[in-house]
Structure formats: structure tokens, C-alpha cells
Amino acid sequence: MKEEEIRPKRIFDEYRRLAELDAEKYFGASGREHVCCPACGLNGLYSFTKHTFVYEECPACQTLFASPRPPVEAFSLFYQESESAKYVASTFYKETAEARREKIWRPKAKMLSEIIKRFGADRSDMVDIGGGYGIFAEEFGKISGRQVTVIEPGSALAEICRGKGLKVIQGFLDDIEPGQLPVGSKVFVSFELFEHLHAPEKFLLRLKELMGSGDMFIFTTLSGAGVDIQALWEDSKSVSPPHHLNFFNPKSARILLERSGFEVLQTSTPGKLDIDILCNNQEFIKDRFWRTFIIQASEAEKQAMQTFISDNGLSSHMLVVCRKL
Ligand SMILES: [Zn+2]
Prior knowledge:
The protein is an alpha/beta fold and 325 residues long. It has a single domain (3-324), classed as Vaccinia Virus protein VP39 (Rossmann fold).
């Protein structure tokens, strides 16, 4: 898979331009509060500033996180109104929807169905938090024959999901009552949401209230210890404030989850794009090893390296499987 197929440069660059303007417009005048490492609670050390957002790195678990942080209210407004948030929901996802269905959601639905089978949860009801266009729900439904419940706060996206015949609960996780969810055992999933969360621990504690004992939570997010983010660091396009605030890694995600009362069943990094992202951003690579590798390696060597990266927890696309104790 290539980055261009799921994130065309033209569309991605425009999104990044709008996000930079929004960082100033929505957060320029807002107060900011110091936050500790969202995984282990220690004070972070200054790493860099990007579009007025300061990022710190935890000296103990290497989580990269935005601190100080604007208040959560500023983010609510930003996600409802801002040009970059609208651009993601309209142009970005609309123009890439079918490519993403084939390259991302269909394989992901297959992977998820294998995971839940492995952990004996294939008869559980699936709930997709932040289900967006509902493409995962559609694809998982095709494979499993089971209906996915979508939790989606955005009214336009919720309407699109309803139009597809999906079961939708419109609202943020905070607004959901346990009675709105399917009865019986459940598997909660969320994709590319965790890096956006203002307060990840609070999110997990709220989620736990909606979960029964033994229910699973499976999520994907960016790993800040992944190859392309490590090599590009502040120039990584994944480090895009105000959207992306938390970059956990396999080690630190485990710390946060165990602290929050979850049993971690698996952390892995099934990402496929690290090397391609480095190829597309050669001029920003800081590390000599990676710069030389990207210039000299053959396609086959790059593919072998990507496989090694994914197999050894070193990709920036991370998958976590856990269960409420
Ligand atoms: Zn930490």
C-alpha cells in the first residue's frame, strides 16, 4: 500500500494548511493548562513547538503529548465549526472513501473478525465509537453478518450512517446511557480516535462505565515510537495540532490501560506505510541511517524493512486489544 492511495498529497496538504490556520484561530487566545504524561502521569520534557502547540515527551515511557493544552470547550467548538474539521469530514473522507474502503476498512474488518474470534468474542455485539461514514460497520457487517452499532457525535455523519441502515447512537461517549447499547457482551472499537482525545484516561473511565466485565475494547492509534514519526519528529505530518494531541506507544498504552483497570491482551503495529512516508518526506529525515536507507534501498529491501518494522512493534500505526477486568 502507498500513502498516496489513501491520503493523496494534494488533499492532505490542504488539510494541513487549514489545520495550521485553525490552530491560531481557535486556540490563539485560549488559556492553556499544563498536563502530565497521559500514560504514566510524570512531567514531560519540552520537545518542540508546532503551530503554537508545545509538545513534551515523557522521560519514562516516551509518550509524546501536547502540553499545555487548551480547555476541552475550545476543542468542542473547533470540531464542530473549524474549516479543517469540516474539510476532513467532507472533502478528505468523501474523496478517498472508496480507496479507503478497499485498502483500509475491508482488511481491518477482516483483521478484527479474526481477533475477536481468537479471544472468543465473535458472538458479542460490536460498537464502533466515532464511526464516521460507517464504512467499517458496513464491511464488518458483510463479513460477520452482524449489525454494528455506531456511536457518532457529528449530525451529518450520523445521518449518513442512518441512510446506510446502520444502527446509530448520536452523541459523544459522555452522553451515552448504558440502556442505549445492545444488551449482552460487547466489543467496543475505535479507529484513529485516541490521538485526538483531550483526556484519554477520562475517556477510558467513561468507557468502562458502559462496559460489562469481560467486554473488549480494540482500538488503533498513532504510535509515537513508530519509525516515520521518530525519524521525522516535529516535521512528521502526523504531528498535526490541534487534531493530534497524544502519541502513545505499545509500552505506554499498556501502562495507561492497566492503570485504568483493563487487561491488555495484545499490542501490535500492523502499519504498512512507515517507509513510504519516509520516502515522501526525505528532506525532513533527521537520522543519517534512515536517510541513507531511503536513498539506497531497493523496493524489495524497503518492503522487507517495512515487514520487519510492522512485525516488531515499530510502526506508527498501532493496534491495542484489551478487556475490562
Ligand atoms: Zn509517561
